[in-house]
Amino acid sequence: MKVALDIDGTISEHPQFFAWLSQQLQQAGHSVLILTFRDPAREAHTRAELTNWGIVFDALVFAESMTAKGPLCGIHGVELLFEDQDECIVNVPERVLVFKIRNGGNFDFDSQQWVSTARLTQLLR
Ligand SMILES: [Mg+2]
User: Fold this and answer.
1) Cβ of 52: how many Cβ atoms within 10 Å?
2) How far is Cα 99 from Cα 6, in angstroms, rounded to an integer?
3) Domain limits of the chain?
4) Is 7 or 125 the better-scoring residue by pLDDT?
5) Does the domain made of 2-114 have the CATH classification 3.30.420.10?
6) CA–CA dist 55, 36 (Å, integer)
7) CA-based nearest residue to 100, from 116, 121, 83, 120
8) C-alpha–C-alpha distance, residues 105 and 103, integer Å
9) What spacing in Å lies between the alpha carbon of 88 and ligand 1's midpoint?
10) pLDDT of residue 125
């Protein structure tokens, strides 16, 4: 399997879990791809941060926009994606299983509602 992990709002929400997950996946012969919308100029900082968290990976891929993550999943043959932002999920190929991470940026814990935009959310009636 090829598994992609977002950093901010995903790995950063529980680095200990994602360190364990990434290590287990690699040890089992699977591939771990880090897929981030961070500035590529921060690659050294990003690699150091991931290492400090204990995250192991086969590739670090910088998306040039949030919506670019979808096509990159296709290009890299990603089968599973852990991601917190709807904008990054909408263009992901249908065959990719997406694990959406809930955090303070995409969920209003006071009102118990997801935070999104009309463009990305179709409300049920
Ligand atoms: Mg994120």
Assistant:
1) 10
2) 11
3) 2-114
4) 7
5) no
6) 14
7) 83
8) 5
9) 8
10) 84
